[in-house]
Write a structure and sequence with these properties.
This protein has 2 helices and 4 strands; from the N terminus they run βαββαβ. Residues about 30-35 have low confidence and may be disordered. It has helices spanning about 50-60, 85-90; strands spanning about 45-50, 60-65, 70, 100.
Length: about 100
């Protein structure tokens, strides 16, 4: 249904709306080291044991200390430890004790 202001027989064009402006925000570039595709697949990664258990039950992906996101499903003992995960883990206070596991 049309409103009273929508006159199909109007002869004069209506005034255009005020011009709109779009602001552009500058974003800092985040430079990340780009590993070769598949590099993360060659390593065992550190993830909290609880997260691995939740993933096993729900099928949801986990996030390793290095940032890799995946659904665990392989034996981590068959692969070397991810150097980035290992470095982060060792830099944490009390590194080497409890909580985290390789996956």
């Amino acid at each position: 249904m049309s409103s009273p202001t929508d006159d199909p027989f109007q002869t004069q064009p209506t005034a255009p709306a005020a011009p709109s402006r779009t602001a552009v925000l500058d974003r800092e570039e985040q430079v990340e080291e780009q590993a070769a595709p598949g590099d993360h697949e060659r390593f065992a990664h550190y993830v909290k044991k609880e997260k691995i258990m939740e993933s096993a039950l729900s099928g949801d992906p986990v996030i390793a200390l290095c940032g890799k996101v995946w659904v665990p499903g392989r034996d981590p003992k068959r692969f070397p430890v991810c150097p980035t995960c290992k470095e982060i883990y060792e830099s944490l206070s009390g590194g080497g004790k409890g909580g985290d596991d390789k996956s």
